[in-house]
Every structure is written in C-alpha cells, then in structure tokens.
Prior knowledge:
Layout (H helix, E strand, L loop, with lengths): L1 E9 L3 H19 L2 E6 L4 H7 L5 H8 L3 E6 L14 H12 L1 E9 L12 H4 L3 E7 L11 E5 L2 E5 L6 H15 L5 E6 L5 H15 L5 E6 H10 L6 E4 L1 H15 L6 E6 L4 E5 L16 H13 L4 H16 L13 H11 L1
Parallel strand pairs: 1-2, 1-3, 3-12, 5-10, 8-9, 8-10
Antiparallel strand pairs: 4-5, 4-11, 6-7, 11-12
GO biological process, one term: L-leucine biosynthetic process
Family: Belongs to the isocitrate and isopropylmalate dehydrogenases family. LeuB type 1 subfamily.
Function: Catalyzes the oxidation of 3-carboxy-2-hydroxy-4-methylpentanoate (3-isopropylmalate) to 3-carboxy-4-methyl-2-oxopentanoate. The product decarboxylates to 4-methyl-2 oxopentanoate.
Amino acid sequence: MKAKIVLLPGDGIGPEVVREAVRVLDTIAGRYSHQWDYQECLMGGCSIDRFGSSLTDETLADCQAADAVLLGAVGGPKWDDPAAKDRPERGLLALRKGLGVFANLRPVKVHPALIDSSPLKPEKLRGVDILVIRELTGGLYFGWPKGRDRKDGRERAVDTLEYYDYEVRRVIELAFDLAKGRQRRLTSVDKANVLESSRLWRQIAVEVGAANPEIALEHVLVDTAAMRLITGPAALDVVVTENMFGDILTDEASVLAGSMGMLPSASLGQGRVGLYEPIHGSAPDIAGKGIANPIGMILSTAMLLRHSLALEAEAAAIEQAVDATISGGARTADLGGSLGTTGMADEIIGRL
C-alpha cells in the first residue's frame, strides 16, 4: 500500500513522540512492504510563531488531501495569553472542523502489569476495557454566540451549548455500531435533568436504541458517570457523550491506565481522513528532556493503520509489541521506570 500521512509534530513533547511514531511506521512499512509518503507541517504554537496563525489554510488543505493525519500535541505557557487573537487550541478545533471528524475514539485499557501504577485499588482495575466516544465538533466549544462584553455595567462572558439533531444522531449511531463489535453494552452520558441540549441527546439515543435492540443501552448523568469511572470502571464498555463532558471524562479515565502517556485516540468522520493523536498535552515541563512516554503516540499509529488504511494485521502487530514491551518490564519515568522516549520506542520496535 502507498499512503500519504501528514505529520503535525506541534509543540512541547509533540515532536519527540511523533519522531518515535514515524520510526514504528517505518518498521511496519519495511515488514509489510508498504510505502508512506510523509509531509510535515506546522500547527499550534509553532505555527503562530512562524506564520501568525495556529492553522494556516495551506496546512489545512494538505491535511484534507492526505490519507491520515498524525498529531503530536499543541499549546504551552508561551501562547496562554487569554487576550491573544489566536491560540494553539483554536488551530486544533479548526482542524477537526475542517476535516469533518465528529467522533473522538479513546480506548482505555488497563494493562495487568501496570495495575500498581494507578492510584486506584487493584481490585477496581481488573478487566477495565472501555471505549469512550466523544462528540467533537459541537457543544460549548463551537456554539454561538460566544464572547465577552459589558452589560449593566458588568463584564460578562458568554458560551453557548448548541447541538443540532444530526450532530447527535451521527455520533450515537457510530457508538452503536462500535458496540456491536464489543460487549454490546452502551452507556450514553448526558445531563438531561438540567440541560435542554442533553434532553435532545437522550431523545435521539432512545430513538437509535430502538433501532438497535441487540445493544443494551443505559443513560447516565455526567456526574454519576464521573463517579462510576472511579468506583466501578470495569462495568463500563462503550461510553458516548457530548464534547465537553467527553473532554473531561477521558482525562479522568487516563488515571485508570496509570499515565496519560499510555492512551491513544482517533478522530473520525464521514470523510476519509482521520486525525490521530495521544490524549496527553504538550507537557512543556519535560519538553526536550527525552523522557516523554511515546506509547500513546505509538498506539495512535495503530489506530491510524486500522481505521484509515484498513490494515488490521499491522495495527495488531503494534499493539502486541506494546503489550509485550510492558509485560517485559519496560517503563518510562511516568510509570516509575528509567527508559527515555527513544529507549521505549527501541523496545517496541525490537518486538516488531
């Protein structure tokens, strides 16, 4: 296979983990006789510094023309001025919108060898294997009106939580489809006791559930879902929720795996281009030290191979190599070990 992959290393530790992910992809290409055409572009704070924009029209066009996009991380204190005209996160939101990726898939699986790395009791973590599906292009992050003004002599800030029925329906339908390949259990998370947008969400979930009776559907309020992620995560299988709730819950869920550095994600839509990135941020405090955990980024490449290129054997090979590496005792600093970013990637590549 030949495929074009756009690389967006981004800021902080992003370039470090993307570099190791490319080494893994190159190993896969050599083993399975594939050919990857890489194109590296700037996005985020580095793009603001170079071009004055967190996402240029040219970079977006390059991403739209690719088969898949691999993103490191964006942001950092340098670009955190709330009064700034542009911020790295705006580029990320614009990229998701421009690619039409409306669903973010975040698998949270606790490796048996890493149970002691989590602050939770081991008995809470055995058997945890959750797929969280977060709606990605609606809600508070995109609703309008939005901004700050003065009213009655007071400064006021406004954000609007807005959803259209089609935005809700497409992500819930995807969640049902994915649940069919797992344990056939779906948890829909909302705040229907308070929010009108959540009442629409629940209404549509019920409608889609009626068309998929083989899937056990439950509705859970977001505060209860946050509690269940800690008190009984093994009881969850597929979880689907709106944008901001998903943003918060998936960061909470990262604690289950022992480190944010372990978790990958895939952002998918109706178009052919998927966006793949680890869930961790740019971690500017450790950038340049060579100690970032590359596993989340490497597992994101496995999701890229599976979802964008339909290369299941290759994706599974990466996941098996990561599992074997962890079982073999390899650990980066965030997991209590001494391996650096490249050293961990070496261990994984050696098992490929």
